[in-house]
Amino acid sequence: MVTRTLVSRALDAETACFPMVAQAARIHRHRAGQVPECVALLTSRPVEQLSAKQWMQANINHWGIETGLHARLDASRQDDRCRLRRPKAVLIHGMFNRWANSMLMHWLSQRPNARHLTTSDFISHMSANHDQHAIRALTSKHFPS
To answer: HSE on the CB side for 98, CA within 13 Å?
Structure first.
């Protein structure tokens, strides 16, 4: 059995030092036989648009993201092992990793058997011929196939 408690409040981006923030929440979870955990959450949706009940459901449903984007960030880019601590460095690091994953997803969409390719395959493709594909991707108006 899991007991969850969510507490939220309105918050602005300047106070949070995080762009687009309108609300913050903290979820306390207690599972039988496990150590209780506390998770902090941020959203751009204001309190009027996202009730505590809706937010709790969204948090429960977040595993689709966890097994999608986050798995790619953590498994391929070692995101959870990142030791950056300065807010600007974390922001820039996150932006570049997500940009690289967006490029990966586009690259995969151009491949007929994309489900058999990995982030490592994409990195190898980009770095082939002295980073020729990566340089072309950075300097062109449209991402090359």
So the answer is: 8
Q: Given pLDDT bands bounded at 50, 70 and 90, which one contains residue 36? A: very high
Write out the residue range of the structural domain in which residue 42 sits. 2-61
Q: What is the number of other CB atoms lying within 10 angstroms of the CB of residue 105? A: 14
Instruction: Identify whether residues 100 and 54 lie together within a single domain.
Output: no
CA distance 26 to 2: 16
Q: Which residue, among 100, 89, 92, 98, has the nearest Cα to 127 in the 3D structure?
A: 100
In-domain check, residue 76: no
Residue type at 24 in one-letter notation: A
Residue 13's Cβ-side half-sphere holds a number of Cα atoms within 13 Å equal to: 6
Round to whole Å and give the CA distance between 110 and 128. 18
Over residues 69-110, the pLDDT tens digits come to: 666 677 666 777 778 889 999 898 888 888 888 888 888 888
